[in-house]
Amino acid sequence: MSHSAGTSRQKTESDGERRLIGSSSGDPSAGGDREDQDEPTTTFVYVLAFFSALGGFLFGYDTGVVSGAMLLLKREMNLNVLWQELLVSSTVGAAALSALSGGYLNDWLGRKICILISSFIFAIGSIILGLAPDKVVLLVGRIIVGLGIGIASMTVPVYIAEVSPSQRRGQLVTINSLFITGGQLVSSLVDGAFSFLRHDGWRYMLGLSIFPALLQFFGFFFLPESPRWLLQKGRSSEARRVLIKIRGGQNVDDEYDTIRTSIEEEEREAGAGGFVILKILGHGPTRRALFVGCGLQMFQQLSGINTVMYYSATILQMAGVRDDKQAIWLSAATSATNFLFTLVGVWLVEKVGRRKLTLGSLLGTGLSLALLAVGFLLSSQNSPPVTLHSVDSQNSTCRQYGFCEPCMLDPSCGFCYRENGTQVFDSSCVPAGQSSTDHAAWGRCYNMTEGNDSAIWAYNYCPTSYSWVVLIGLILYLAFFAPGMGPMPWTVNSEIYPLWARSTGNACSAGVNWIFNVLVSLTFLHVAEFLTYYGAFFLYTGLVVLGLFFVLGCLPETRGLQLEDIENLFSGPLCSCGASAPNSNREVHYVRVKGSNRLLSDTDASDVD
Ligand SMILES: O[C@H]1[C@H](O)[C@@H](O)[C@H](O)[C@@H](O)[C@H]1O
To answer: Can you give the pLDDT at residue 31?
Structure first.
């Protein structure tokens, strides 16, 4: 079968095919009404979306909670930097592995069982974390939780997309991203609330996720499997029953036939047996979809979201927040901004579509990153000098630095100073503590007393009067990232693959997301060491510009289309879809016709059912 753009739209196929109707009037309501009649959004669909999105909540909670827990854990368990990094990155690394293998599980066991497995894993993980007697058990718990996150991150968007009516699909899948950022927000509030329990606070922080995990596990027991997966497995009467239930008892014949026909067609095209990934790579449209899906996930992480979120605490320290507790609460404000602006994405996704939303978001993200970089540049150009060259018994490299900037870029040193208003004085560059970088290895900043004239220890940052530029950059960054680049890679991936390739496609792209997540967060400090902070943020700006070209050329609009029809968008040559995005000027809707499958506007409407 040919897959060129023209032929796939105009091919004549067996009875029961769909027709692509282009309404050049650009009136979305015309087709929208038809779809509203065809696929009503019932309360039940919202219930399904809620219980599945709890997986997103757990993803956000478990990735977010660790920063606050670490503040307590590193003292309580005497963790060195390596152990701290292990406890943070092991979860993300495990998520990458389990997301990649989740594709196979999804095809084999179905979406429902995978969601049940992930909530079970989350529950076990939170019990282990909450009761952990030592750091090794903590590490085991963090790895287990990561396995749950990986499976949830690739299954939940697919499940929601498969049960949603097409005209609400984008919004409902984006709700999963809202739950991710909601989970991150709740985790920072929980971190704040339990930070006063110096010894056991971390147990509550890490263990509390058992409640949403159990809620999802028991809730999902009573919820149905995806009708698309059931049909693919030949369980047709069950599939029809589920479809009727989620469409509120309406006539589902059209939708059912569309799914069934496209499964038969896909099976003919893709053939049975063999490795799905090889079939994806050997089949033009799915190969191109995979390229777009993985590219989006890669650029999401390359735009530095997790560095910015993680680094927000330091940015706030630069802006003058010295107290740990205050820093925890203010980083809750960062998560709240991320969450609130994801809400804007949920609102916009069906109004402006995925493509425009992603493009606008990338543009704003790039500009904000540039502003962040300029803020860091100004701070570095006005970096305070080292005025006290103390006698260094350990003969460390810290002695050689004449300014704060190179001193703080060296991971083994920190800047110790006093201040009078905004004036920095009595400053020195001294080695950071071996067991904790919270204080210097010795001297004034080793034993710091509370009080106005006491010395201040700046690790990883320099005091600056340009922190406000960085702060504005941070807020703008989140406001632009959260509605588009945050949720759209997940949403788009849930819809661009045909059913036979959907699990594997999502597994690969989610895997790419997690792999780049680890890469970006683990390399940030090294990149900053080589390029300085402003260099690192200019680098992210450059990567976002590349992402902008990628999205401009490669991301087609999927709004309003049935899942079964989206494959056609990838039938042209690689990255020609931007140019031919069908929804940029006109609305495209598929309706069922007898006998042929052509653009209705090419002929007339006389043979529409
Ligand atoms: O879409 C999510 C979201 O934007 C989160 O804030 C971020 O931490 C994740 O890495 C990302 O995948």
So the answer is: 36
- Whether residue 187 contacts residue 211, with contact meaning beta carbons closer than 8 Å, is answered with no
DSSP helix, strand, coil percent of the chain (3-state; round to 5): 65, 5, 25
For the chain, the C-alpha Rg in angstroms (whole number) is 26
Contact 9, 565 (CB under 8 A): no
For atom 10 of ligand 1, the residue with the nearest CA is 306
Q: In the structure, how many helices (H) and strands (E) does the chain have?
A: 21, 5
Strand-pairing partners, residue 19, are 591
Say if residues 457 and 416 touch (Cβ distance below 8 Å). Answer: yes
- Taking the C-alpha atoms of residue 263 and residue 272, their distance in angstroms, rounded to an integer, is 12
Measuring from atom 4 of ligand 1, which residue has the nearest CA? 486
Token digits of residue 480: 């632009």
Q: What are the structure tokens assigned to 291, written together?
A: 């390229």
Pocket, ligand 1, Cβ cutoff 6 A: 177, 180-181, 184, 300, 305-306, 338, 486-487, 513, 517
User: Which stretches of the chain drop beneath a pLDDT of 50?
Assistant: 1-37, 579-609
CA distance 411 to 77: 22
Instruction: Give the span between the Cα atoms of 176 and 518, in whole angstroms.
Output: 22
What backbone torsions phi and psi does residue 426 show, to the nearest 5 degrees?
A: 50, 50
ipTM of the complex: 0.98
Q: Tell me which residue of 242, 549, 537, 112 sits closest to 367, measured CA to CA.
A: 537
Q: What is the pLDDT of residues 257-286, one digit of tens each?
A: 988 988 888 777 766 667 889 999 998 899
Q: Does the pTM of the predicted model rise above 0.90?
A: no
Coil vs helix vs strand at 401: coil
- For the purposes of burial, counting CB atoms within 10 Å of the CB of 589, is it exposed (0-12), middle (13-18) or buried (19 or more)? buried
Closest C-alpha residue for ligand 1 atom 8: 306
